[in-house]
Design goal:
CATH topology of the largest domain: TIM Barrel
Oligomer: single chain
Strand order of the largest sheet: 1-2-4-5-6-7-8-9
Mean pLDDT: 97
Distance between the termini: 37 Å
CATH superfamily of the largest domain: Aldolase class I
CATH architecture of the largest domain: Alpha-Beta Barrel
Helix content: 40-55%
Structural class: alpha/beta
Strand content: 5-15%
Largest sheet: 8 strands, parallel, barrel
Low-confidence stretches: none
Radius of gyration: 19 Å
Shape: globular
Order of helices and strands: EHEEHEHEHHEHEHEHEHHHHHH
Number of helices: 14
CATH class of the largest domain: Alpha Beta
Number of domains: 2
Bound molecules: flavin mononucleotide
Length: 318
């Protein structure tokens, strides 16, 4: 089985991929989406989204990073995909799941799921534009407003030439509202022959076991769960290999937060270094009660270096 770290705009960037793949358990990463509307981007854009291109398309820990595109014009997406392949991308993923209004208004992301034939055309154009040995995959939701076209869309993706499909088991209308409908994944799995990757609401090892049972999928993708519980991939792999489960305790988690701070402290991140640190601490509250308590202090701190000092202090007190 494989565990993929989900693409998450504004959350899973080069630095987060670096920290999380160091922990282990992940077989593959996918970049945040690159939105294609009317241009072929210069190499600098691709290096921004995927700095790993400069290191063989892998994180320092050796985990491949596929580049994700989103758009409605398959030919233009294909041209962009061809460039990024020349730069060394080990794989291309196509986004049919984004629920953002600005994106959907242009009939991209999840909006395309209203027209399986367009989905097919996009996948086909991208598949034809990149070298035969470059994997092309797609990621979709169960539908736009309802699930009526779920199977057609999955089949359109397969017949377009994708080698793998990831399904976030909710419609666009459902946003992120629990539960994810893992039972639908079992139906999709029956309808296609390419590997299906289950995604949505896998927060713990128990969730993984249930998702696997209900969906029948051996491959999974984890997003928020991997941020809230950075050892999730490793623990799932430990379980599958019948090894001792290696959890990350809070003191080690604080060390990871400091490592993350060191990586991002001098970078011009859009939401700012403090924003990223606070975002992570907040999500960690789901797993670590200590994080919830620590967030109360951290949220009031403005300067990133002061957050780092607070983390160091918390670490010393343990
Ligand atoms: C903040 C955020 C950003 C996301 N960005 C992307 C993205 O760039 N591309 C994509 O395909 N999915 C994106 N997603 C969806 C996730 O990849 C995933 O499908 C979703 O979060 C459900 O999985 P989870 O329950 O494991 O988090 C994003 C989700 C969140 C919460």
């Amino acid at each position: 089985m494989t565990v993929t770290l989900a693409p998450m705009e504004g959350v899973v960037d080069f630095y987060m991929r670096e920290i999380l793949t160091r922990i282990g358990g992940f077989d593959l990463c996918v970049t945040e989406f690159i939105r294609v509307s009317n241009t072929v981007f210069p190499a600098s854009t691709f290096y921004k989204y995927c700095p790993e291109l400069k290191q063989g398309g892998k994180t320092y820990s050796g985990v491949p990073v596929h580049v994700q595109f989103m758009g409605w014009d398959g030919n233009l997406m294909g041209e962009n995909a061809a460039v990024v392949c020349e730069l060394g991308a080990p794989g291309i993923d196509i986004n049919f799941g984004c629920p953002a209004k600005t994106v959907n208004r242009r009939n991209a992301g999840a909006a395309l799921l209203q027209w399986p034939e367009r989905v097919h055309e996009v996948v086909k154009a991208v598949r034809q534009a990149v070298p035969d040995n470059t994997p092309v995959s797609a990621k979709m939701r169960l539908g736009f407003e309802d699930t009526s076209l779920a199977l057609e869309n999955a089949q359109a993706i397969e017949s377009g030439g994708a080698g793998k499909l990831t399904v976030h088991a909710r419609t666009k209308l459902e946003g992120y509202k629990p539960p994810a409908h893992w039972d639908w994944l079992a139906r999709i799995k029956e309808a296609i022959t390419i590997p299906l990757v289950a995604n949505g609401d896998i927060w713990t090892l128990e969730d993984y076991k249930r998702c696997r049972e209900v969906s029948g999928c051996e491959h999974i993708m984890v997003g928020r769960g991997a941020i809230a519980k950075p050892d999730l991939g490793r623990v799932i792999k430990n379980f599958e290999a019948q090894e001792t489960l290696r959890f990350i305790a809070w003191p080690e988690m604080l060390d990871l937060l400091l490592d993350y701070y060191q990586l991002i402290k001098d970078t011009p991140l859009p939401a700012g270094v403090s924003g990223r640190l606070k975002q992570w601490i907040k999500l960690l509250s789901r797993t670590y009660p200590e994080a919830e308590e620590f967030f109360v202090t951290a949220r009031l701190i403005q300067q990133p270096k002061d957050i780092a000092i607070a983390i160091e202090e918390a670490r010393r007190k343990l």
